Q: What sequence folds into this?
């Protein structure tokens, strides 16, 4: 399958008065046509900054300081803003968490979608409106020919998010970056949108990066997972494989904290402590202070290990020590 996005050693930093924050520190991955990739981790792990970096949306004092982002063979890092703007929406698009912040409350849905089309394509008004109605229907908006004339406040939260997804799909981009787009929605609407996104990826060939702290949601959507911690990818692999047999203790912690793992009446397991400040990361493995497997060797940053399309960054990978997902010794 064709690789549409290849990210290599991506580094994004924020220069603050307190020091340099390395929010994205050497992130690498590839994305194939029609693939859905899950990017998971706790809040503050660098997931969203990674997504913003891919579209060149990191504002000062943040900046990309290294690496490459190859989109269909073109490196986006270092491109002039005018060239990046020409590619945003058309070749790579983003769905934000809050559709209220995405949609202009003073403009009708039709006007906003037409503006997005006019920015990248030379179409007649009739053809553009037909295209807008087509994508609204694709994401499940009922009676799109009539609803396109409405304002954002006339839609429910779930419908507004569908409109935001429709705008991202207008140009059939090669890649869509979805930054926790269903977090604020109820479970039933969330399930509908996840089903539609799977279908859209299969039908259109658009690849997606689904960013979330909700491992349960991502696991039902993505075929491959990247687990981030303190700006680094600490584990990568096929979703089913990672969930059944995590290598990194942090991945195990995320899995065991899911309510579905615990038996009725049983206390939920949790990862001790909190994510560290990027300004005061511990030496070596950043997860070591929270890890029950940490040893003296963890004071040195672990190397990346690849094994049969699986990757982890840990001195003491769990699978090799006979530890199951609940942390009990087998």
A:
């Amino acid at each position: 399958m064709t690789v549409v996005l290849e990210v290599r050693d991506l580094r994004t930093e924020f220069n603050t008065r307190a020091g340099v924050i390395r929010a994205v520190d050497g992130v690498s991955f590839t994305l194939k046509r029609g693939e859905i990739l899950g990017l998971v981790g706790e809040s503050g792990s660098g997931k969203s900054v990674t997504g913003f970096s891919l579209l060149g949306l990191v504002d000062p004092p943040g900046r990309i300081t290294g690496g490459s982002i190859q989109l269909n063979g073109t490196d986006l890092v270092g491109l002039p803003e005018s060239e990046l703007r020409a590619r945003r929406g058309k070749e790579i698009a983003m769905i934000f968490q809050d559709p209220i912040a995405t949609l202009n409350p003073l403009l009708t849905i039709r006007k906003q979608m037409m503006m997005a089309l006019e920015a990248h394509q030379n179409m007649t008004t009739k053809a553009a409106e037909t295209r807008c109605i087509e994508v609204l229907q694709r994401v499940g908006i009922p009676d799109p020919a009539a609803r396109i004339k409405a304002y954002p406040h006339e839609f429910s939260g779930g419908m507004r998010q569908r409109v935001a997804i429709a705008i991202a799909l207008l140009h059939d981009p090669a890649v869509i970056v979805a930054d926790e787009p269903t977090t604020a929605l109820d479970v039933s609407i969330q399930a509908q949108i996840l089903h539609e996104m799977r279908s859209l990826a299969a039908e259109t060939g658009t690849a997606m990066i689904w960013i979330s702290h909700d491992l349960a949601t991502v696991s039902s959507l993505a075929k491959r997972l990247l687990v981030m911690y303190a700006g680094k990818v600490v584990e990568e692999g096929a979703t089913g494989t990672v969930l059944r047999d995590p290598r990194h203790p942090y991945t195990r912690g995320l899995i065991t904290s899911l309510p579905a793992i615990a038996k009725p009446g049983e206390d939920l397991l949790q990862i001790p402590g909190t994510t560290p400040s990027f300004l005061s990361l511990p030496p070596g493995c950043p997860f070591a202070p929270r890890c029950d497997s940490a040893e003296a060797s963890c004071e040195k940053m672990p190397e990346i290990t690849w094994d049969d399309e699986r990757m982890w960054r840990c001195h003491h990978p769990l699978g090799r020590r006979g530890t199951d997902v609940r942390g009990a010794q087998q």
About this structure: Residues 1-91+173-324 form a domain with the Rossmann fold fold (CATH 3.40.50.300). Confidence is low (pLDDT under 50) at residues 321-330. The two ends are 38 Å apart (CA to CA). The chain has eleven helices and twelve strands.
